[in-house]
């Protein structure tokens, strides 16, 4: 069964009392254990797609299934978790308590079991020994590791990630890419990953969805046929460069066409 099925969705917003069509007639599927990135120009609706799939927004047209359920049902059944650009950790709670939070809210897990699971996830994301630390004592990369551990604590089959490493320096971002792939391989979850980095999308993904803008529409669904497990050296390969260059040319063409359209208006 596909993790996500999106069929002909369109989304409209009202801006300054005028309708604005953000997304138009988008369709795609994401399979079990598949890592799919979404990339496109700023304002093309990448984050809006995540929020539609997550049931935080609703489309004007089309349908969405998440693990065989409506997005609202999937959210209630905790079928997915979100990881945002900001780690969103509560400064008054320890790292361990931040990770345990979803289970505390759920109130269906024994506190001792919740703590044990949180400790296991701390080990999985490489934060053993930091369970008593406060978020402000962690580096940016470590805070994102903690945020990922919190997203994993309910064992969701699906994870949405909205530019989670955008604020990190390049070295830390590379390290987090490798860690994310390792954790993804161990957890068996599907991942929908929004990013502005073409190289990151190619390196991480099984497929890359490329969006245009004005309104956002799906212009390419590119299968990334590179071997796994992936190492950082792969980013320097001719194969990775070819995929990156293909997508970069698409985005450059989109940007040029949008600029010409704006001039005509």
Task: Kindly describe this structure.
It is a single chain. With 265 residues, the chain is an alpha/beta fold. The protein is 40% helix and 23% strand. The protein has 8 helices and 9 strands. The protein has a 6-stranded mixed β-sheet, with helices on both faces. Helix 3 packs across helix 4, helix 3 packs parallel to helix 5 and helix 5 packs parallel to helix 6. It is globular. The model has no long low-confidence stretch (mean pLDDT 91).
List the secondary-structure elements in sequence, H or E.
EEEHEHEHHHEHEHEEH
Give Rg in angstroms. 19 Å
| Sheet with the most strands: spatial strand order | 5-6-7-3-8-9
> What is the arithmetic mean of pLDDT?
91
Distance from N terminus to C terminus (CA atoms, Å) equals 45 Å
* Number of separate strands: 9
Quote the beta fraction: 15-25%
Tertiary shape? globular
- Protein structure class: alpha/beta
Q: Can you summarize the main beta sheet?
A: 6 strands, mixed
Helix count, DSSP H or I runs of 4 or more residues: 8
The low-confidence parts are none
What's the topology here?
Blueprint: E1 4-15, E2 18-30, E3 35-39, H1 46-53, E4 61-66, H2 71-76, E5 80-83, H3 95-106, H4 111-124, H5 140-152, E6 158-162, H6 170-187, E7 190-194, H7 198-204, E8 207-211, E9 218-223, H8 238-264
Parallel strand pairs: 3-7, 3-8, 5-6, 6-7
Antiparallel strand pairs: 1-2, 1-4, 8-9
Helix pairs in contact: 3-4, 3-5, 4-5, 5-6, 7-8
């Amino acid at each position: 069964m596909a993790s996500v099925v999106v069929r002909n969705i369109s989304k409209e917003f009202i801006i300054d009392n005028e309708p604005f069509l953000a997304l138009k007639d988008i369709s795609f599927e994401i399979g079990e254990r598949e890592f799919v990135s979404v990339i496109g120009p700023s304002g093309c609706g990448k984050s809006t797609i995540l929020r539609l799939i997550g049931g935080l927004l609703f489309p004007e047209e089309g349908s969405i299934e998440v693990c065989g359920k409506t997005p609202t049902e999937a959210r209630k059944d905790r079928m997915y978790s979100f990881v945002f650009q900001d780690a969103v950790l509560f400064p008054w709670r320890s790292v361990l308590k931040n990770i345990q939070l979803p289970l505390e809210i759920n109130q269906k897990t024994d506190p001792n079991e919740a703590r044990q699971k949180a400790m296991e996830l701390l080990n999985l994301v490489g934060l053993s020994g930091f369970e008593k630390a406060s978020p402000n004592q962690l580096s940016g990369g470590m805070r994102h590791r903690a945020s990922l551990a919190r997203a994993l604590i309910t064992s969701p089959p699906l994870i949405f990630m909205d530019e989670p490493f955008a604020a990190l320096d390049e070295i830390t971002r590379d390290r987090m890419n490798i860690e994310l792939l390792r954790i993804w391989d161990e957890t068996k979850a599907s991942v929908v990953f929004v990013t502005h980095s073409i190289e990151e999308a190619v390196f991480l993904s099984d497929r890359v969805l490329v969006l245009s803008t004005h309104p956002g529409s799906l212009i390419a669904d590119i299968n990334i046929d590179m071997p796994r497990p992936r190492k950082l050296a792969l980013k320097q390969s001719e194969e990775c460069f070819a995929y990156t260059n293909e997508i970069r040319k698409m985005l450059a063409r989109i940007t040029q066409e949008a600029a010409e359209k704006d001039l005509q208006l």
